[in-house]
Amino acid sequence: MLFRFLFYCLLGIYTNSLFSQTGCENLSSVYDLKKTSQIKFFKISSEFVKTYDYRLKLTAYDSTGREKSLRNFNKDGLVTEINLYFMNVIKTQKYSYNQNNKLTEIEIQSPKGIMFEKTQFFYNDLNKLLKASHFIESGENDKVISYIKNSDECIENAVDSSGNKKNYEKWHVNYEKRIEEHLFLDTKDQIIKSETIEFNEAGNPIKRIYENKSFGQVNVSEYDYNANEQIAIELTKDKLGTLKKQQKYIYNENGLLIETQLLNSEGVPISKDVYKYEFYK
């Protein structure tokens, strides 16, 4: 299960929302994951992660070998801190959880510990997420998000401090076709961006179509797996089928993911992520 967790950490829905972290569970029975949005390039997930024999550290490098980010995880496989670099640390994202491993707070800080923004998550006695509140640097609560769920759909509704509707997100699952759709909508219910993921019978994603309607951009990613059902390579093409980039996944002899390499269409390295494991005695 960890391999799919790491894969989904890298699967890209690059939203700037700090709200869309834990509210909409994956509605499909096809694969046992919690469907969440991302905070920029990293997905938070707390439902399916088990306790491991090691603590994970993930370091990202650019094509020159310069460190871009460092992500630390706890013993339950949950991210606790992300440091973003440009020569030195320029921003830190800290994550807090309750005793049931539910995400309770995300805070983005300056190198001196000054808060840039913060999101808090509130649960009922059954650990079901009720709402999330976002705070800006001044401490003002500028947004509140609530969740509407049924058997095959989940909607995240956001309002500002005056109760005005903000852009929102919606997930829908087609069980028969093994397809999950993720929509980003504006206040007039018009689709801004969309993502469609197709799964095989084993529950592994095989195709992802991302469309940004504002710019007419369409990216199609296809995934191949190794004999252990671990992601081996991801090819991303434009709407005409022209290869734009590729990402390779490298594992050690124990099947642990140790490196991902992002290459351009000609196979020239762009960046890489290195995974290191601190094993417990």
Number of domains: 1
- Describe the sheet with the most strands: 18 strands, antiparallel, barrel
Strands, total number: 20
Continuous helix count: 1
Overall mean pLDDT stands at 78
Q: What is the CA-based Rg, rounded?
A: 19 Å
Q: What's the overall geometry?
A: globular
Low-confidence stretches: 1-22, 26-52
Helix content: under 10%
Structural class comes to mainly beta
Distance from first to last alpha carbon: 22 Å
In short:
With 281 residues, the protein is mainly beta. The protein has one helix at 2-10, and strands at 38-39, 42-43, 54-62, 67-73, 79-86, 88-97, 103-109, 115-123, 129-136, 141-149, 153-160, 168-174, 179-185, 191-199, 205-212, 217-225, 231-238, 243-251, 257-264, 269-279. The strands form two sheets. It has an 18-stranded antiparallel barrel.
